[in-house]
Amino acid sequence: MNESLLSLSASLFRHCPRCAATAEPETQGNRFDCPACGFVYHFNPATAATVFVVDGEERLLLIRRQHEPAKGSLGLPGGFIDAGERAEAAARREVLEETGVVLEGLHFLATHSNLYPYKGILYPVLDLFFFARVASFQTATPRDEVDEIILTPIDEVNPADLAFASMRAAWADFQAYRTA
Ligand SMILES: [Zn+2]
């Protein structure tokens, strides 16, 4: 990971985004407080929905990432949840946008924290992991932000190959659910 990455925190803000007053060093931390206009900004994690999609032959739907971060790495389909959107809806939307696969039932597995490097900033993210079973991957095709679809027997996946720490951590939750 790039050493020059900066954490998303109040220390990044040199001026108030509302009134442009110079930021006070003592306001740095998990929230930005502007002493001039009273503007407050909380540095909370973004939320994302990610899905382990499995077909009737016990194959897992993996994608090869087209863009940074982790360009070229294997990942699970998913993405950021929009404001006002349910995580379940985001999971279905992202899987459809990235792979063309329509999900029906979703089972919530677990959450794991992640750090998402993007254009020099390290964003804190809370990933929500789901499980979905589909009858077939007949409609699976690489779409938005995806270079390749990889359908792999679950037992042949090495979780260490997955792009993000949160995905590698969620692997144990996925295995515990499917073998329960
Ligand atoms: Zn201000």
**What is the H/E order?**
EEEEEEEHEEEH
CATH architecture label name of the largest domain: Alpha-Beta Complex
Which spans of ≥5 residues are poorly predicted at pLDDT below 50? Answer: none
How would you sum up the global shape?
Answer: elongated
Radius of gyration over all CA atoms, rounded: 19 Å
Q: What is the helix content?
A: 10-25%
Structural domains: how many: 2
Q: What is the strand tally?
A: 10
Largest sheet: 5 strands, mixed
* Structural class by SSE content: alpha+beta
The total count of helices amounts to 2
Account of the protein in words:
This protein is an alpha+beta fold. It has 2 domains: 6-42, no CATH class; 46-178, Nucleoside Triphosphate Pyrophosphohydrolase, CATH 3.90.79.10. The protein is 15% helix and 34% strand. It is built from 2 helices and 10 strands. It has helices at 87-99, 165-178; strands at residues 6-7, 31-33, 40-42, 46-54, 59-65, 74-75, 78-80, 107-118, 121-133, 146-153. The strands form 3 sheets. Strands 1, 4, 7, 8 and 9 form a 5-stranded mixed sheet that branches. Strand 5 (59-65) and strand 6 (74-75) form a beta hairpin. The longest helix has 14 residues, at 165-178. The radius of gyration is 19 Å and the shape is elongated. The protein starts with 5 loop residues before the first strand and ends with a helix. The model has no long low-confidence stretch (mean pLDDT 91). The site of zinc ion has 8 residues, from loops.
